[in-house]
């Protein structure tokens, strides 16, 4: 039995399925409690039902991006593990990048089913888990205090300045992180092209960036805030389609 067959074994499906089912049940419990709380405080039941339907509808297309991530990772990591990661706490941009980086670090040169070993998968899965767990850990010790500060800001001007500075730093830090990630990947694509390698990765990245730019332009020009829910998945689909057609020319 090869490594991919083991990663797709019924036992792995059962383990991951139990965890996903538990998280799904938690979501249902909170949704029911939120609905009951809304009725208790006198919210319009009709509006709540419309909101639920609208939210479920707008969640369909963004979830396509998650499905694409599962499909992309399942070829080398099996289906249950990516399904678990992207269903519970993982993020599409995070899982694919960390998995790729971990695969290169263990000497695979990238995610590849033919080169995957049990040792390599263990390292990749461990890195994917450890690197994203700190948000939960920090919330255990600091979320209550942070939420209290946001809900009850200090009346003094100094307190207000600190609150604004904290919020501003979070936005800047998140933006800087994504710029760094994008720059690192674009740099590797440019390096591949300059060193005589394929131009396809850079071309696909540019197509994806152009697609996202188009979505942003539509949002600003048409004041269509709803398009934010579809921009990531739409850009991915456009970039993947471009990769298929451009790959025939490479």
Indicate the topology.
Layout: H1 3-7, H2 10-40, H3 45-58, H4 60-77, H5 80-88, H6 92-105, H7 118-130, H8 134-151, H9 157-194, H10 200-222, H11 228-247
Helix pairs in contact: 2-5, 4-5, 4-6, 4-11, 6-7, 10-11
Commentary on this structure:
The chain has 250 residues and is mostly helical. The chain has a domain of 132 residues. The chain is 81% helix and 0% strand. It is built from eleven helices and no strands. Helix 2 runs parallel beside helix 5 and helix 4 packs across helix 11. It is globular, with a radius of gyration of 22 Å. The two termini are 35 Å apart.
Helix content range: over 70%
Count of separate DSSP helical elements: 11
State which percent range the strand residues make up. Answer: under 5%
Overall outline: globular
Largest sheet, strands/sense/barrel:
none
């Amino acid at each position: 039995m090869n490594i991919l067959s083991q990663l797709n074994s019924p036992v792995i499906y059962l383990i991951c399925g139990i965890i996903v089912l538990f998280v799904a049940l938690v979501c249902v419990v909170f949704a029911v409690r939120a609905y009951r709380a809304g009725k208790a405080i006198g919210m319009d039941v009709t509006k709540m039902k419309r909101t639920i339907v609208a939210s479920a509808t707008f969640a369909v297309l963004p979830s396509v991006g998650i499905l694409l991530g599962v499909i992309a990772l399942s070829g080398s990591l099996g289906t249950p593990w990516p399904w678990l990661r992207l269903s519970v706490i993982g993020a599409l941009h995070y899982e694919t990048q960390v998995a790729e980086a971990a695969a290169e670090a263990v000497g695979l040169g990238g995610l590849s089913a033919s080169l995957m070993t049990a040792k390599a998968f263990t390292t990749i899965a461990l890195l994917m888990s450890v690197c994203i767990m700190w948000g939960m850990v920090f919330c255990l010790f600091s979320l209550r205090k942070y939420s209290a500060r946001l809900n009850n800001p200090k009346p003094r001007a100094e307190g207000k300045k600190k609150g604004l500075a904290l919020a501003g730093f979070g936005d800047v830090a998140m933006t800087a992180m994504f710029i760094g990630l994008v720059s690192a990947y674009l740099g590797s694509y440019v390096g591949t092209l300059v060193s005589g390698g394929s131009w396809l990765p850079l071309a696909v990245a540019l197509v994806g960036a152009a697609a996202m730019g188009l979505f942003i332009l539509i949002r600003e020009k048409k004041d269509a805030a709803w398009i934010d829910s579809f921009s990531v998945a739409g850009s991915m689909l456009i970039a993947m389609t471009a990769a298929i057609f451009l790959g025939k020319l490479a």
